[in-house]
Amino acid sequence: MSGQTPEQWGAERQDEILGTLREFVAIPSVSTDPAYAADMRRGAEFLAAHMRACGLENVAVRTTAGHPVVMADWLHAPERPTILIYGHYDVQPPEPLAKWRTSPFEPTLRDGRLYGRGASDDKGPVIVALAAIAAFLQTEGRLPINIKLLIEGEEEIGSAHLDDFVAEHAMALAADFVLSADGATWRADLPTIAVASRGICALEVTVTGAEKDLHSGRHGGSVANPLQALSRLLASLHDETGAVAVSGFYDSVRLPSADERQALGDIPFDEAAYLRSVGAPEGAGEAGWTMLERNWLRPTLELNGIWGGYSGPGSKTVIPSEAHAKITCRLVPDQTPEATLDCIEQHLQRNCPPGVTLSVTREPGGAFPVAVPPDHPGLRLAMQVLEETYGQKTLLVRMGATVPIGGIFRQRLGIETVFFSFATSDEDYHAPNEFFRLERLRDGVQAWIRYLSLLGQQAG
Amino acid sequence: MSGQTPEQWGAERQDEILGTLREFVAIPSVSTDPAYAADMRRGAEFLAAHMRACGLENVAVRTTAGHPVVMADWLHAPERPTILIYGHYDVQPPEPLAKWRTSPFEPTLRDGRLYGRGASDDKGPVIVALAAIAAFLQTEGRLPINIKLLIEGEEEIGSAHLDDFVAEHAMALAADFVLSADGATWRADLPTIAVASRGICALEVTVTGAEKDLHSGRHGGSVANPLQALSRLLASLHDETGAVAVSGFYDSVRLPSADERQALGDIPFDEAAYLRSVGAPEGAGEAGWTMLERNWLRPTLELNGIWGGYSGPGSKTVIPSEAHAKITCRLVPDQTPEATLDCIEQHLQRNCPPGVTLSVTREPGGAFPVAVPPDHPGLRLAMQVLEETYGQKTLLVRMGATVPIGGIFRQRLGIETVFFSFATSDEDYHAPNEFFRLERLRDGVQAWIRYLSLLGQQAG
């Protein structure tokens, strides 16, 4: 043992921790694209090796029907709580590549930030949690509590196989609650913890006209243009007020109480500053709700991609055979992925213009919306540690995004998930030039050490 | 001299003519994509060399502000007419490559057809015209009339620089009329000549939301989605009846007389067979007009491409920063490209949804709609030769497609353009698996020989 405290160890090893993170980010572990399958495996193996180096036990890369899950544990604190630490090693695709200032998989330090795909979501926060564990094991030779780790490889594709995996390994994963290294903090200047996340469901639409691409002069006016049909169909999904125009879409949406709307209204949020931060000319969305309400309390139906016909240089006078769109919805209690997809598919079939045929494919990996009770002890402790770290009261917020694990762990293990991530939501994850703040790497390690330490003291 | 007649020479050299065509098709002279610039130059040089081999004089590859024009002449028939033969050596892009049965630039014989990009549009018909010229020069050492040739390299991009080029070389190009090797015959089983073609104008639309791609969970509901805005905007371009919903679009459209509609109705056209031939489930378009009327007499507004967001495997939960569409209109008398673009741009600006900004780029190369007087002598002769060749009365038809040269030659040289092409409109030009019928190669050479011969006899 080193004679250092875990806190000292964590503070002095920042360069080493950052070095590990850089190596981790350099692995292009893109889960959605089969072209990266070997890199996914490499990402899992790297993580497993690092876990062993931290001093964790029973480190294993476990196969699933999709990408592998990396597991480990340290269970030598009898009578103390057991937590399950969750994170993911897969990342979003790097496209559009042309918009990155530096290559997405060549992590680069700039202005106190580490730039690279996955730096913030979720490789940085995973390395933070592991550094806290190493800080105990490398100094005191033991952890103040029992820890299990489950780092998955399919978070960016909706944790498609995690539900099956957790169900199958329910005994081995049993814990008091889940502490998640994923799920970004709302704002950099304010300690916050997310207690709710929206669900998600996804589908792909293909509209087909003629069997082959046609010359738009020779055939224009005779047959339907799938691009035109698709535009009309997609435009029908929202009404003039920005609300989703799909019959049944809002049927099971829980309306917030006046108190809930009031609490949301009390959260400091500068709409103009937000719009500047994303470079948007103005806000937009469903009429009758504030921006935070639209993002946190209301479901959405978003087009994530449209393609068909010619998109190269110059012009090509073609009526394409096919046109495509990708759609996802963010869901709020008590919507379900299945029922939402049902009513969208019915809407699309009912509104398909003449002259074309429609095919709808449901993407796997839907997720339920979730919410953690505000008095959960793991959540109260997280609030306390953040208040100590930042000297400000921790605000409970919601997430517009989806972390399907909340629903999975509750359903399969009967436990809640507390988010304790040091990623920040402005760090351009899912966009070019993703980054992770170095001060959050430093603060995160200390906060996780404090959390594990306090949780151990609460026992008995 | 060989002692053969031009007709015998043409008949016996079919293999050689086909060989030349195969070499020509193997050159990927795609005008729209700068990546093929060297191949464009190679296509022009190949054509020039072949013209010299045919016995033509003053063969020259002339630079323009765009791709080069290939010119040649033979002017040793005093007191005889002078015609300007038109064609083009550029081709459409080969995409989508996956749909080709054989590689687009490896010309392949199958079932009496030559498959390859440009085989029908317009390399086959150009080689037909040159073979007829060679047939005279290689047997009789002279042509029955004076001939000038202008084979351009920008037909597939709207003959963008042809207007300037013709204006600049108006003296050198002076002729009695233009005989065009471009402009496909309407049907394979019926001798037809097109006497009208639709004009064209093109634009590209970009809708921009936030400055960067955004995570659809974190931001969905807060800001506008450019794909959704673009769909709404594009859907607004047509009404429920399939008519263009752009104010002013139809203002200058000449309505056909009852006689004209009757004449069109008398043309044999099997709608069901047409739909089968393109594999379309049903016809579609502007209500209140027959399919032929929609294609020949009515203008269209077609989407040729839409792109934005993610289109790769799996899903990506992104709100893209930008969404794009390419649009072309087919114009009929007396619409003009400029006025049409004006009213579309006004419509787009007026209908742009909130939360996004709109930018519109007008593509160069618009073209006026044109029509040839039915009593033009060059047209009457073409009708006669086709009737002799196929033993059936030649039908005068219109083209849904655009051949901008009609307008250019009329405006700059004061002469009409007669279409005398042996391409057929079902030969999948502008689509995968373009082909040219070998029997049309054979018939075409004989018909062009006959045409030149008869035109020489008419003189004096």
Give structural attributes.
homodimer; 460 residues; alpha+beta; Aminopeptidase; Alpha-Beta Plaits; 2 domains; six-stranded mixed sheet; four-stranded antiparallel sheet; 18 strands; 21% strand
Topology readout:
Two copies of one chain form a homodimer.
Chain A: H1 6-12, H2 14-25, H3 37-54, E1 57-62, E2 69-74, E3 82-88, E4 108-110, E5 113-115, H4 119-139, E6 146-152, H5 162-168, H6 170-173, E7 177-180, E8 192-197, E9 199-208, E10 214-215, H7 226-235, H8 258-266, H9 271-278, H10 291-296, E11 300-309, E12 318-319, E13 322-331, H11 337-351, E14 357-362, E15 370-371, H12 377-390, E16 395-399, H13 405-413, E17 417-419, E18 435-437, H14 438-458
Parallel strand pairs in A: 3-6, 3-7, 7-17, 8-16
Antiparallel strand pairs in A: 1-2, 2-6, 4-5, 5-18, 8-15, 9-13, 9-14, 10-12, 11-13
Helix pairs in contact in A: 1-4, 1-14, 2-4, 4-14, 5-13, 12-14
Task: Briefly say what this structure is.
The first copy, chain A, is α+β, with helices and mostly antiparallel strands and 460 residues long. In chain A, 35% of the residues lie in helices and 21% in strands.
Plain-language structure description:
The structure is a homodimer. Chain A is of the alpha+beta class and about 450 residues long. Chain A has two domains: about 5-195 and about 370-460, Zn peptidases (Aminopeptidase, 3-Layer(aba) Sandwich); about 200-255 and about 300-360, 2-Layer Sandwich (Alpha-Beta Plaits). The first copy, chain A, contains 14 helices and 18 strands. In chain A, the strands form five sheets. In chain A, strands 1-2-6-3-7-17 form a six-stranded mixed β-sheet. A four-stranded antiparallel β-sheet of chain A has the order 11-13-9-14, with helices on one face. In chain A, strands 4-5-18 form a three-stranded antiparallel β-sheet. In chain A, helix 12 packs across helix 14. Chain A starts with 5 loop residues before the first helix and ends with a helix.
